[in-house]
Amino acid sequence: MPDKDYSFRSLIDKLNVKVDACVLLLGVNDPALLADLRARTGNCITDRKKANRDVILLSVESVADLRKIESCHTLLAPAGGLWVIYPKGQKHITEKQVMAAGLATGMVDNKVISFSATHTGLRFVIRKADRAASSSPVAATRKAQ
Fold first, then answer.
1. For the segment 67-120, what is each residue's pLDDT rounded down to a tens digit?
2. Strand pairing partners for 100?
3. Phi then psi for 83, rounded to 5 degrees?
């Protein structure tokens, strides 16, 4: 089966940002992306960490930055996605290293995108079997609303 062409889709669609999604940006300094996100959802923050996020965008530039993935895991909503944004085609940080860091948290990778001309995005999610264990009263309250 041939690969599907997603090149026509906007970046926030590739990132699977839904209307009213709770989004957290950590180290992603892209004013155009932030404007697009804020146009789609009124719940987009960049200045503090808040739990139960549907989408987290984490920018990493080095292997040392990969340790930030662990703290992001605890901020995800049970069915949320953590996008690790890292430099394309570099030897100092590779897809294999990013993947290993995400898998070490117990999450699984399930999508990769071209984030920009210079960066790739790799998405991690909580395993379906582990989602009930990661549900919180906050998540249950939000779902009931």
1. 999 999 889 999 999 999 999 999 999 999 999 999 999 999 999 999 999 999
2. none
3. -95, 120
Q: How far is residue 67 from each of residues 62, 76, 81, 122, 141, measured CA to CA in Å?
A: 10, 16, 17, 15, 30
58 close to 82: Cβ distance less than 8 angstroms: yes
The SS3 assignment for 22 reads strand
Least confident stretch, 48-52, 60-64, 135-139? 135-139
**Domains in the chain: ranges and CATH:** 11-144 (3.40.50.150)
Q: String of b and e for 45-59 (b: at least 16 CB within 10 Å)?
A: eeeeeeebbbbbbbb
Q: What is the pLDDT of residue 134?
A: 52
Q: Which of 61, 55, 57 is nearest to 41 (CA)?
A: 55
Q: Compute how many other C-beta atoms are within 10 angstroms of the C-beta atom of residue 28.
A: 19
